[in-house]
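Please fill in the sequence for the structure shown.

STRUCTURE ENCODING:
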């Protein structure tokens, strides 16, 4: 490590849309500058936390002292996304999500990720990419495809599947080698790269089972993660010595992420088990057991047994337009006109209808609450006999939240706690709030193997709304 480096020389992004420290004559840097606002839109904007930013900037600062291109300026942006990702653009733009910071366990692991991305910049991999638009709108759920989409809900590039880091396998391995060399030379534990690749693989496996976040926005969607890649990372690390070589700076890292937002933001509402609650909109609904909710800025979706899918969103409709007329206004493909009827759901005006199209059957429920109109769309294959009971259960659960219910909803955060005598993995994971699979998630967040235990005095991460 270089002790005399001043943190102030490596401050993170303080004005993310305007970047002044890259060459205005560099075509690739200009391209990166133009893509920056799109990345912010896709990944929830910039996450602002001075304590966290100082910690990340310190890691970047140590890495720049050994960079293969010492004249390259870097601008790091922490993205307000629960997805686990990091990527780089030409001109020194580096991005890391708060989701990745929550998963990492020390400064060396963060350095390994950032050094890998700096390796792409150093190796000019951006020059070698095909000259094509590097983004692709995320494939929407079948419900949206068949029922169409309100133009107002097509928020530009929200949840767009950015393929900005789609480098070839050889380029990834080259960036691994450059990154591990740089982090090792900077004094960090070079074995952190292989360690964090394993953590991300475990996270990816858990996510694919739970469906809790969008896999297309994750690191492993655009970075190959074969076991041999981890083996190669460990071989590169051995060039610096044996395990235990280098600094992890774990305490500094944990102090930086203590209080970090975890999961959904208040702006997008919260998923708690099988219930979605939005404190700002003041509404909630639940899905049956066996369904998994995925919350995004554009819509809330849920998938369940028998290829069933549910979509919830909001639309702006003139207060003078009846909900039945809105359902008939042409946005529903295959609508059964005779099925449209006005109903009341938990004291709220509503209309329900059914539709069929391309081998699918649909239930459409629209509800007016608090001056806003919400849509609950449920889809199932024609052979599925559960559409009506599931749709009625979901729409029947829709309700307005009381003032006390809204006030009680708090975002989840990473809390760093010190293990006390008598604490166990089980007792610590039981302290976690607002998440499923507490024990599995606790082990994952703290990189604990199935048989690993904790000792008094250890620092560990838990998820809590306190």
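FILLED IN BY: designer on duty
SEQUENCE:
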């Amino acid at each position: 490590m270089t002790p005399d480096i001043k943190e102030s020389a490596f401050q993170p992004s303080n004005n993310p849309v305007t970047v002044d420290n890259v060459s205005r004559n560099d075509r690739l840097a200009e391209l990166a500058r133009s893509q920056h606002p799109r990345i912010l839109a896709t990944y929830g904007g910039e996450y602002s936390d001075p304590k966290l930013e100082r910690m990340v900037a310190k890691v970047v600062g140590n890495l720049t002292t050994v960079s293969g291109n010492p004249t390259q300026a870097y601008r790091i942006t922490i993205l307000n996304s629960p997805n686990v990702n990091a990527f780089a653009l030409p001109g020194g733009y580096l991005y890391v999500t708060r989701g990745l910071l929550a998963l990492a366990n020390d400064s060396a692991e963060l350095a390994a990720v950032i050094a890998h991305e700096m390796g792409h910049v150093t190796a000019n991999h951006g020059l070698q990419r095909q000259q094509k638009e590097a983004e692709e709108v995320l494939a929407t759920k079948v419900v949206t495809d068949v029922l169409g989409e309100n133009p107002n809900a097509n928020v530009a590039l929200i949840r767009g599947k950015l393929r900005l880091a789609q480098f070839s396998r050889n380029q990834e391995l080259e960036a691994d080698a450059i990154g591990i060399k740089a982090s090792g030379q900077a004094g960090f534990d070079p074995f952190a790269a292989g360690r964090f690749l394993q953590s991300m693989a475990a996270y990816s496996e858990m996510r694919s089972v739970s469906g809790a976040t969008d896999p297309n926005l994750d690191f492993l969607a655009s970075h190959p993660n074969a076991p041999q890649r981890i083996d190669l990372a460990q071989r590169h690390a051995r060039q610096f010595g044996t395990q235990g070589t280098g600094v992890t700076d774990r305490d500094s890292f944990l102090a930086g992420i203590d209080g970090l937002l975890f999961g959904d933001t208040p702006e997008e509402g919260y998923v708690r088990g099988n219930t979605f609650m939005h404190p700002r909109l003041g509404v909630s609904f639940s899905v049956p057991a066996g369904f998994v909710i995925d919350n995004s800025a554009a819509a809330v979706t849920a998938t369940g047994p028998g290829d069933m899918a549910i979509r919830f969103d909001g639309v702006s409709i003139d207060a003078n337009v009846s909900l039945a007329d809105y359902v008939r206004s042409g946005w529903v493909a295959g609508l059964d006109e005779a099925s449209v009827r006005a109903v009341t759901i938990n004291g709220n005006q509503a209309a329900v209808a059914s539709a069929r199209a391309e081998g699918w059957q649909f239930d459409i429920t629209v509800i007016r609450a608090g001056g806003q109109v919400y849509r609950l769309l449920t889809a199932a294959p024609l052979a599925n006999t559960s559409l009506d009971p599931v749709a009625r259960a979901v729409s029947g659960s829709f309700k307005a939240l009381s003032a006390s219910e809204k006030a009680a909803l708090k975002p989840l955060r990473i809390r760093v706690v010190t293990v006390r005598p008598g604490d166990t993995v089980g007792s610590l994971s039981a302290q976690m709030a607002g998440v499923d699979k507490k024990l599995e998630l606790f082990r994952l967040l703290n990189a604990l193997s199935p048989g690993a235990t904790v000792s008094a005095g250890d620092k560990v991460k838990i998820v809590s709304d306190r």
